[in-house]
Amino acid sequence: MFDTIKAIAKAKHTNGPFIVRNLVNKGLNKAIVKALKYKETLVLYKGISLLDDETPIMLVMSGFTKDSSNAKTGPLVQLYILPIHESPKDTYYSGSKSVCGDCKYNGNNGCYVRWSNLGSIWKSAKNQSVIPMTLSREFLKGLRVRVGAAGDPAAIPASIWSQLLSSCENYTGYTHQWNNPIFQDLSQFFVASVDNARENEKARSLGWSTFFVTDSEEEAKEEGIRCLASTDKKDSHGLPMTCSTCMLCNGKSTKQKTITEVLHGASNTLHKARKARTA
């Protein structure tokens, strides 16, 4: 069995055009999943949340055998930070700090994540055992990853991120915990999620690159690099830009950067978010 898996793994692509590498490696991941009789939603880590020091949480992976249907992010592997014993929806609505910390949008206050849609992923993952780190890294090899499709990566130790993200080809990730002294080591991986010019300036002074969400298109254009996945720009193949073709939103570069986005979403979500931003 393991000889078969090793043979499949050797066929993985670690360079060359991403569009080819993504197709080949996800197909090979599917073959490994089938050989091991795994689900296509897997748990990479379980532990106590570093955001409240008491709640059991898990890191859940999807989109590693087939592409996500998210048109903006494109074919990124999706990593979710979720509670184990309470549904994601209930956790979000209660305002628990376990997976979102002190994010101002926590507690049904206009978060862009559709927490009510995560029930099936949570149910599939909550009773699973954690797969070995070597296998987690194999599934991520050569792929591009979205850290925090739900939840804040600060809930999980930096050592786990170091092991996982050194295997993938590239990744995106954001944290609202950038102002907390105990999470400063995460700036090497992720960008600080900020909501006004004051926060942007403070985060940059601490050494973070930033993702600046504003309520003004004019300010978005003036304050940094406009999110390319929200523009009409095309990639090298003439296709609309997605997160998977941009990949600027991480802390890997030694040169600081600010990516800007305009607040968006359904009208009721926008109303809650604007209220949270002025609280």
Structural account:
With 279 residues, this protein is of the alpha/beta class. Helices cover 32% and strands 18% of the residues. It is built from 10 helices and 10 strands. It has a 5-stranded mixed beta sheet, sandwiched between helices. Strands 6-7-8-10-9 form a 5-stranded parallel beta sheet, with helices on one face. Helix 1 runs antiparallel to helix 2 (18-36). The longest helix has 19 residues, at 18-36.
Quick gist of this model?
The protein is of the alpha/beta class.
Averaging pLDDT over every residue, what do you get?
Answer: 94
Q: Give the overall form.
A: globular
Percent helix: 25-40%
Q: Return Rg in Å.
A: 18 Å
Q: What is the succession of H and E elements?
A: HHEEEHHHEHEEEHEHEHEH
The end-to-end distance, rounded to whole angstroms, is 57 Å
